[in-house]
Structures are given as structure tokens and as C-alpha cells.
């Protein structure tokens, strides 16, 4: 029997300890305060809420492309139909050379031979591209027309189809007396109201037409006084800005007129117009206006109403 302790045998056994990753932070902080979190409390990610598998937050958003693409041009307009597919269009767009230089035979492998071959290739590619694009447009138009007709046919069938049994059985019942009170009946006076509206509209249109004719006539009458040359403009400026312009405009021989107020007086008010109608003028300028001037104004107004146009 051995006198050694069994613990000594255990120490001689080979021991292999696997290294495990350590998640413990052994770095000693320099402060006793709590470490700052990467997510602040005001952030929406402060409270962890599980998101469903199909969520917009997990979708990959496409990158933002700056700028706008130009509007694609319609190569085959409706009014031109298949004009660009005809052989004549290709001959007009990319005609064959007809000069004397093109009649010469190009040496094989020369630059001229290469240019001619490239021109023929471009002309051939143009014709093939036009044919392919026109065929693609026809297929697209036919597909759209088929879908449109099918949709229209389905709508018409749904509109003309009888009421389904489930709609009939699940529809709420309406009392017959309530149906009469809630029904929207046609207005029995709708035709009379329509005729009145038609007459009123015709009257307004006639008034607008007459006002337009009066405006044209007034413009025609006033056109005789328009300034159309520099000589007339200079004469009118000399007349208006002369020193004795207001004196010549005045009608009184007792005192001279110095401004527009002395010539035409103040703007008329309601009171002055009533006084003029009642022959109770209180302005000094009204006493200088004779009955002949008033009669001329009245006759001019009556003549304009009778003739339907402005008079000088």
C-alpha cells in the first residue's frame, strides 16, 4: 500500500483548460459615475419593441437619386401612323451617298473603307431599331386595348347583372310609409324653372353684348383724338403745360382760374346732385352754367340712348 496521498496522483495528470471568451469589462473607469449609454432616453429605441418579420423598418430603402429624367419622346405619333417604318423614311433620313467620291472603290483595310462600313452599319441599325420599336409599340397598344375592353365588359356585366341572393336577403327592410317620405321626387316645376333660367341667361348675354358694342363705339369715337405722331404729342404737351392753360379754361371774366378746382369745381356729392335736380344750386360755378349748357348735355344723352352709340 502506497503511503502517498491520492492528491499527488491527480496533480500529475495532464490538464487542458479551453479558453473561453470573457465578456466582463475589467477596465477600471476613471469616474464613479454611471457610464453614458449609447441610446439616450429621448430616442425611440430606448424602449425595445419587437418588430414583426414583415415590417417597413427592416425593408431596404432605395437610394435617393437626385435630378429628374426627361419625358420620353413619342417616336411614333398617332397622326403619322407607320410613316417611320416605311422604306421611304429610311431613304430620306439616311440616304445613300450619290457623290463622285462615293463611286470610287475604297482599298481594303483603308480608313475610307472602314467609314463606309460603319455608315452602312448605322443605316442598318436605324432600320432595325425603328422596326423593333414599332413592333413593341403595337404589342403594348394591343395589350392595353385588350385589358381596357375586358375591364369595360366586366363593368357592363356587373352593372346589368341582377341583384344577388345574399344582397337581397341581407338588405335592411324599409317600411313602405317611410320609403314614400324619404324618396327624392322630381321637381314638377323643373321645366318652368329651366325656361326662366334660360331667359335670364339670354338677357344677361344680351346686356353684355350691348355693353361690348357701346365700348367699341366709344373707342371708335375717341380714336379720333388719339395721339399717333410725335408732332401731335409735342403740340398737346405745349398746350397742357403752358402757363396760361387754366386761365384759358376758365369761364368767368371776373377772376382767373389757377387750377382744376377753379375750372371744374369739387367732385359732386349726393347733396349737390339732389340740389341740381331740384334747381337749388348753391355753388358759384353753377350760377355761371346757362340753361343752354344743360340742354346740350341732356340732348346728347338722349341721342346716345336712341342711336346706341357715343357722340362727341
Characterize the structure shown:
The chain is mainly α. Among the domains are: 80-95 and 111-156; 206-307, no CATH class. It has helices spanning 6-12, 87-93, 111-160, 165-170, 176-182, 190-222, 230-240, 245-249, 260-264, 270-277, 284-287, 291-307.
Distinct helical segment count:
12
Distance between the termini: 155 Å
Oligomer: single chain
The percentage helix is: 40-55%
What sequence of helices (H) and strands (E) makes up the elements?
HHHHHHHHHHHH
Overall 3D geometry? extended
How many β strands by DSSP?
A: 0
Task: Give keywords.
mainly alpha, 12 helices, 0% strand
Strand and helix layout:
Blueprint: H1 6-12, H2 87-93, H3 111-160, H4 165-170, H5 176-182, H6 190-222, H7 230-240, H8 245-249, H9 260-264, H10 270-277, H11 284-287, H12 291-307
Question: What's a concise summary of this model?
Answer:
The protein has helices at 6-12, 87-93, 111-160, 165-170, 176-182, 190-222, 230-240, 245-249, 260-264, 270-277, 284-287, 291-307. The protein has 312 residues and is mainly alpha-helical. Among the domains are: 80-95 and 111-156; 206-307, no CATH class.
Amino acid at each position: 500500500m502506497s503511503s502517498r496521498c491520492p492528491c499527488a496522483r491527480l496533480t500529475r495528470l495532464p490538464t487542458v483548460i479551453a479558453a473561453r471568451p470573457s465578456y466582463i469589462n475589467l477596465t477600471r473607469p476613471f469616474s464613479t459615475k454611471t457610464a453614458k449609454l449609447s441610446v439616450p432616453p429621448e430616442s425611440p429605441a430606448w424602449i425595445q419593441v419587437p418588430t414583426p418579420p414583415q415590417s417597413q423598418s427592416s425593408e431596404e430603402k432605395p437610394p435617393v437619386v437626385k435630378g429628374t429624367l426627361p419625358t420620353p419622346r413619342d417616336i411614333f405619333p398617332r397622326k403619322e401612323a407607320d410613316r417611320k417604318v416605311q422604306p421611304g423614311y429610311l431613304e430620306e433620313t439616311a440616304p445613300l451617298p450619290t457623290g463622285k467620291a462615293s463611286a470610287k472603290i475604297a482599298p481594303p483595310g483603308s480608313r475610307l473603307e472602314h467609314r463606309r462600313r460603319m455608315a452602312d452599319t448605322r443605316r442598318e441599325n436605324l432600320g432595325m431599331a425603328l422596326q423593333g420599336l414599332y413592333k413593341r409599340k403595337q404589342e403594348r397598344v394591343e395589350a392595353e386595348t385588350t385589358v381596357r375592353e375586358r375591364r369595360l365588359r366586366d363593368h357592363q356585366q356587373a352593372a346589368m347583372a341582377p341583384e344577388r341572393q345574399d344582397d337581397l336577403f341581407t338588405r335592411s327592410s324599409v317600411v313602405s310609409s317611410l320609403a314614400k317620405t324619404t324618396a327624392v321626387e322630381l321637381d314638377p316645376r323643373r321645366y318652368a324653372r329651366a325656361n326662366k333660367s334660360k331667359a335670364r341667361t339670354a338677357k344677361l348675354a344680351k346686356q353684355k353684348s350691348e355693353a361690348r358694342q357701346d365700348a367699341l363705339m366709344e373707342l371708335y369715337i375717341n380714336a379720333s383724338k388719339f395721339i399717333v405722331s410725335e408732332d401731335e404729342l409735342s403740340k398737346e404737351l405745349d398746350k397742357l403745360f403752358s402757363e396760361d392753360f387754366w386761365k384759358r379754361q376758365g369761364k368767368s371774366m371776373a377772376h382767373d382760374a389757377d387750377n382744376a378746382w377753379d375750372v371744374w369745381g369739387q367732385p359732386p356729392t349726393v347733396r349737390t346732385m339732389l340740389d341740381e335736380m331740384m334747381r337749388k344750386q348753391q355753388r358759384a360755378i353753377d350760377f355761371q352754367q346757362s340753361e343752354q349748357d344743360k340742354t346740350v348735355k341732356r340732348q346728347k344723352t338722349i341721342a346716345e340712348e336712341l342711336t346706341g352709340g357715343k357722340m362727341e
